[in-house]
Amino acid sequence: FTIVACRNKNKVNVKEYTYNYDISYSEEGYNLEQLIAQIESANNVSFNGASFNIVNNNSEVVECIDGNLTTKNTGVSQLVLTNEGNKITVNVNVKPTMNVLASYEMKQGNSQSISVKFKPESAKESYEITSSNPDVVAVGNKNIIRAVSTGVAEITVTSASGLVEKFEITVDEVIYKITYEVNDENLEFMVPS
Questions:
Q1: Is the pLDDT of residue 68 over 60?
Q2: Contacts with 133 (C-beta within 8 Å, 6 or more apart), sequence order
């Protein structure tokens, strides 16, 4: 008996790619075209504007609608993008964002509290605040910083997951300082308030 091997002319060789995509949580979302452009650049390939079918294994982290990725929470979601000739597995890692609020100018001797917030609100992280020059700006407990002397210090806020925000604080000299000692002899000269 005879065996004849024939190649199926209609069979398409599927090229497979894997891509890790680290993004920050954003209420504005991300454009899928930009992601595909990054994958093309990383693999030195062109998909020529091909449209892809998308399967998402975790829509609680990332939602994919009408060519946009919307971050819903922190974590990992795997997207599988397929068309006739390509299969792209994208591991999307959504990290929290950190917002730091502080005044960038202080007067010598004053203190302020630094506000550190994470998004989404479910992302509770520990963080550390450091000063490049503690002789100018000293970091205390409970996010309190104190202007010790005139000059400039860089404040760095670092989260447990590696998010970093830096900013400079300029400490100005106090132009004048009035001290008044109150005792029985001069009490009558004090302003009532």
A1: yes
A2: 151, 152, 153, 154
